[in-house]
Amino acid sequence: MSQREAEPVVTGAGPDGPSGLTRDLQSPLGRLFAMLRVRRLEERAAELYTQGRIGGFLHLAVGEEAVSAGVIPQLAEEDRIVASYREHGHALLRGMPSAVIFAELFGRVSGCSRGRGGSMHLFDAGRRFYGGTAIVAAGLPLAVGLALGDRLRGEEAITACFFGDGAVDEGGFHESANLAALWKLPVLFVCENNRYAMGTAIERHLSVTDIAAKGACYGIASAAVDGMDVDAMARAATEAVGRVRHHGEPFLLEARTYRFRAHSMYDPQRYRSQEEVARWRSRDPISTCRQRLEETGQLSAGAWSSLEEEVEREMQEAVAAAEAGGLEPVEDLTRDVLAETGPES
User: Fold this and answer.
1) What is the CATH number of the domain that holds 250?
2) Which of 70, 133, 197, 284 has its Cβ near the most Cβ atoms within 10 Å?
3) pTM value?
4) Between residues 345 and 116, which one has the greater pLDDT?
């Protein structure tokens, strides 16, 4: 991690991970397990989409799993999370059951948003997961508002906000960074820099491509980290979370990562070469983490097979449970959409 401020960073220990998971997400093996769950969920979603069993939009983060697996386990249960529309892995690692995620993708009433939100609008206030926002940079001011609310109520929670490099172009990024710094709000800004704003390369939409450097414009300490290395992500996130929690001020963490698949399932991907994708695939965060654990004797071939079988079984059961769920009754379709009318209306 390249630190942009000489002051020592206060480290902080996060929780063992959301309940319901079978691995300690703070351990190297747990991080591998977490990334594998996210990868298999998204690969299965892609298959179901091509079969016409999922409608609407679907934006996958295949290749970026190290970011969510490195950051989210460092957050406490009371902390809040705001994500972008590429948020399946964030929701899953925050503790949202995979069956609930698939149900939302299928438009079933058992989904987290009763099937109304779909891929881009996963939401679970009980787990303090506030989306899933479809508009680029829209989550940034929401995160600042959540942090301000916690500050006014005297709560000690921090808010982590995930966004892409394309959001840095938007006024919402600059307004949010300015207010978070001005009001000294505990916001962890996590830029998932996958080098493309939809189909526009970062060199074509940012005059200064060092996103971490932009924190200095607002007096925000920042750091850049290899977003393809889950262990580096975990270390950087631990330091960043600890700093935000200790100082009660914002921090900008730039995760330099890459998405292997297209922007969305409709994207023909003509803006980058197959050679470029292949170069980045050689740095697959799951493969490199697995290799590191095998070389250090922490993972055997049998243990890897067991992990794969466990995750595959989870996804099969999740899809079956989601598809067995019902659709929202027709008489409920106007609920939360139209106000009830009274005699004076």
Assistant:
1) 3.40.50.970
2) 70
3) 0.90
4) 116
